Amino acid sequence: MKNLLILGAGTAGTMMANHLNSKLPAVDWNISIIDECKTHYYQPGFLFLPFDIYSSKQVKKKGSKFIPKRVSYIQQSIDKIIPEENKVLLKSGESCSYDILIVATGTKTVPEEIEGMTGPDWKNKIFDFYTYDGSKALRDKLRVWEGGKLVVHIAEMPIKCPVAPLEFAFLADSYFKNKGIRDKVDITFVTPLSGAFTKPRATQALDYLLKEKNIKEVTDFNIERVDYENGKIVDYGEKEVAYDLLVTVPTNMGDPLIERSGLGDELNFIPTHKATLQTLAHKNIFAIGDATNLPASKAGSVAHFEAEILTDNVLRFINDDPLKEEFDGHSNCFIETGDGKALLIDFNYTQEPVEGSFPLPGIGPLKLLKESKLNHMGKLAFRWVYWNMLLKGVPIPFVSSQMSEKGKQIEKIK
What we know:
- By secondary structure, this protein is of the alpha/beta class.
- The chain has seven helices and 24 strands.
- The chain is about 25% helix and about 25% strand.
- Helix 1 packs parallel to helix 6.
- About 45% of the residues are buried.
């Protein structure tokens, strides 16, 4: 009997457990998944929680509900991976051996990386919304905040869901308009990038929306410290942005266990083949989702597409067949733009987000790079899709793991 071990029961790990449960014969393979957290969070919902669009109950469920009965669910903390021995050590002192290891340990916010961020103003005037606790605390703050300088800030890239900080700024614009205090709120979007997004075509559309909504934009801002005593963030060139309320996306890093295991880069992300999802250092270790160093968005849709391709490659690895180099960096996501509307973008490693129809060529019904109420409805509907299809490994109709070029105005990245 051989052992396949999955580290992490978040989006990517749970999907892999469900995919492999139906593919690997139970007479030959034991499948185990390890995660200390007993709660599974719908992380896209953290964006909506501060604005009372979602409740706390809508963004979390018991994690074991989504793990197949055949899969052994080990709810313990992981110490480190010892690849030379094909072994994972737990903090309890126990160990788990593996023939194949899938690392799906995600990424974590590390606010302490920035001087002054976790000072006395943390969760008082400085908040994040990339964690459940941070998002909930920010909700409570916004309910009573009466206005001032709101700064939405990205510390550095890469981050989970690169569009979420923009979405927060757009939703904040709507939120304060609906409360009747938008004239009392000055919103500034601060980014280390030279534009609103990582892709130039999408940046054009998003920069336009920032201007339209009277949201100031500060680009090329590489934060050095938070001067909480004077209420401002300061970059390495001594450029300053003042705030009364700072909503920040702190530095994102891979799980500390990756550093302890000696498997990661300087941010604890695992060097991974961008098309096969096999790690570069060890043939029997694969990585998926936010844990990798792939030049793709760290988002649930990316993990979804990766899971379908990785499942096939795990089976090929078991049969000593060449791995397929099929993952193309495919990502699609809804971008909330406020006022009950959203954009939809679809792109990959070599293709810019462009206009077109999705998911059916020439039919849609969703339009790419166009604001619409239907796209907003699609964003809200995704929560049902996530809990009932995506996590369970159920294929989403008409949406392929590789990006389709049909019905789109293709423009390759040079």
